[in-house]
Design a protein that fits this description.
With about 210 residues, the protein is of the alpha/beta class. It contains 5 helices and 14 strands. The strands form 4 sheets. The chain has an 8-stranded mixed beta sheet with strand order 5-4-1-6-9-10-12-13, sandwiched between helices. Strands 2-3 form a two-stranded antiparallel sheet. It has a two-stranded antiparallel sheet with strand order 7-8.
Length: about 210
């Protein structure tokens, strides 16, 4: 199972809270897994990316709750999951049925926490399943990534920093470090995202 892209949390029929994820990294990982013989379930938020390999089953979702429901449905029957989606941490408490109108110079939004999808999968994964996560950080990168790795019961986490030029959302390149649960850190140079995907998949394969 691979998750990719952003989530959109609706404010009203025409507006949403979202992020700048293009889905390129998650789609590249899905393709690399398929090329290595895996049957892939790709759960993706709104994106212009396309799948190419016949071994990829694409499932389109919109919100963080949609992603949670899809992942919880499919995860028990897969060998592992790569959680590359950029999931909203908060969602509006209520999406308005009609377009919000300008009424004053300020507007206050009431937001609620979304479910932490990777953490929920970490709670239910069995000893034969592998769970891989991503950490996009702007400060205390390794500390924050290691904390997520442990708290979400992941087998390894892929860290990239917005401080690294050419890394992060919307680029065709990425610069990552892979941290596994033994504490080992593999650092990679800036590469095209399809090459980064191959590094991630090779790490995954080494765990089997």
């Amino acid at each position: 199972l691979v998750s990719a892209g952003p989530t959109y949390e609706k404010l009203d029929p025409v507006r949403f809270i979202g992020n700048l994820s293009s889905g390129k990294m998650g789609f590249s990982i899905a393709e690399a897994l398929a090329e290595n013989g895996a049957d892939v379930i790709l759960i993706t938020g709104p994106t212009s990316q396309n799948t190419h390999h016949e071994n990829i089953e694409r499932i389109d979702i919109i919100s963080a709750n949609d992603l949670y429901n899809a992942c919880m449905s499919f995860f028990p029957s897969v060998d592992g999951a790569v959680m590359a989606a950029a999931v909203a941490d908060y969602t509006p408490g209520e999406a308005k049925k009609e377009k919000l109108k300008k009424k004053s110079d300020k507007m206050q939004l009431n937001l609620e926490r979304t479910k932490d999808v990777a953490a929920e999968l970490g709670k239910i994964k069995n000893e034969n399943q592998i769970l891989i996560g991503f950490a996009l950080e702007t400060n205390d990168e390794h500390k924050n990534a290691k904390s997520k790795l442990k708290s979400k019961n992941m087998d390894f986490i892929v860290l990239n920093s917005l401080k690294d030029k050419g890394s992060g959302f919307n680029y065709d390149t990425n610069k990552v470090s892979i941290i596994d649960k033994s504490g080992k850190i593999d650092k990679f140079k800036l590469k095209k995202k399809n090459e980064v995907a191959e590094d991630i998949v090779n790490k995954l394969i080494s765990l089997y």
